[in-house]
Design goal:
disordered C terminus; about 30% helix; three-stranded antiparallel sheet; alpha+beta; 10 strands; 10 helices; five-stranded mixed sheet; globular
Length: about 350
């Protein structure tokens, strides 16, 4: 084609002109639509606030490990229903406390009492712990006594699956047990509650009537000095429960009075008198044997054991008052021990 001649416009040229005429903004939109989306930056999770727990006290679980002797099996869970605080017992083992540096034997008990807590009247089993500082176990016997039993039964602890076992404070639980010098021993019971259903009712009831039995040969037993006998006579009318004092009561008058009060029938008079005489003979014989056993025990006792008995003391601890537990200040038992057989209400 010669210079200056006109060229026929082709379809290609038309397309190029249309593309050039598209606004720049439209080009940007096209670019943005085809651009891959950007990922959102992950949000860093905030660090949780650290939780702080109070360190357990060295003897915090001591009172819970002690078997509460004489407590009904079905009431045990209720004993631990409150968060009782025995910090006073724990402090007694610290320097300056009455139990510091001593070998101590501990047993537990409970006392059913009606108390007020948060405006409600509740019958609760208040736990208590009795501490006996002693170089040797203060007893290996359990006394079983109830209203229904005519005489108290004294048996070895092991017959009731009870024994003194060492208590290991929290700070020593990572140590080898056999290398520790145990200073705290607690009364423990290995009778499994799950196995109670296989026991006879009489056997189960024995646990409810168990009482720690402590014998001090330097103190004459109250029973040795007593001239009274407990009488449970199977009368035709109804069982007769009474006490007969062989020094103060005259048997004939005593029997006639029961007949006058319609407690005893006339035809059972002689049988009743023989029954009382036999009980008096049994009691006098038991008293003589007890005095002889005490005399023999003193003769065979070492000087170290004698000194231990002479200074034997019992320390009773109730839980201290806290906002989470009932006020028991007015229901604590304040009686002192009588004789050598201590019930759960006689400390």
């Amino acid at each position: 084609m010669r210079k200056g001649a006109k060229r026929k416009r082709s379809q290609k040229d038309n397309n190029e002109d249309e593309a050039a005429a598209v606004p720049a903004q439209d080009n940007r939109k096209t670019t943005e639509l085809t651009k891959p989306p950007t990922r959102a930056k992950p949000v860093k999770a905030s660090k949780p606030e650290p939780e702080y727990y109070e360190d357990k006290r060295n003897l915090e679980d001591l009172w819970k490990d002690i078997f509460p002797v004489g407590t009904e099996w079905d009431q045990l869970d209720k004993v631990y229903g409150f968060n009782w605080n025995f910090s006073n017992l724990e402090n007694a083992f610290e320097e300056g406390g009455v139990l510091h540096g001593r070998k101590v034997y501990l047993f537990g008990c409970t006392e059913p009492q009606l108390v007020t807590f948060k405006d409600d009247s509740l019958l609760i089993h208040i736990p208590a712990v009795v501490a006996v500082p002693s170089p040797f176990p203060p007893s290996d016997k359990i006394g079983i006594k109830s209203v229904q039993r005519e005489v108290e039964e004294i048996i070895p602890m092991k017959q009731m699956k009870m024994d003194w076992v060492p208590y290991i404070p929290l700070e020593n639980r990572e140590s080898q047990v056999d290398r520790l010098r145990h200073q705290i021993f607690i009364l423990s019971c290995t009778q499994r509650r799950a196995a109670l259903k296989h026991l006879k009712i009489e056997r189960i009831k024995k646990y409810e009537y168990c009482l720690p039995y402590f014998y001090n040969p330097f103190k004459e037993d109250d029973l040795e000095q007593s001239t009274e006998v407990q009488i449970i006579f199977p009368s035709e009318l109804k069982p007769i429960f009474c006490e007969f004092d062989w020094e103060l009561d005259e048997l004939e008058e005593f029997t006639d009075k029961l007949i006058q009060e319609d407690e005893l029938s006339e035809d059972q008079k002689d049988a009743f008198k023989e029954f009382v005489k036999e009980k008096v003979r049994e009691t006098k014989k038991a008293n003589r044997e007890a005095r002889e056993a005490r005399r023999k025990a003193l003769e065979e006792m070492s000087e170290e054991t004698k000194r231990a008995f002479e200074v034997l003391r019992f320390y009773k601890f109730y839980p201290v008052q806290t906002p989470d537990t009932p006020d028991i200040s007015n229901v604590k038992v304040k009686r002192r021990p009588q004789g050598h057989n201590f019930t759960k209400n006689s400390f």
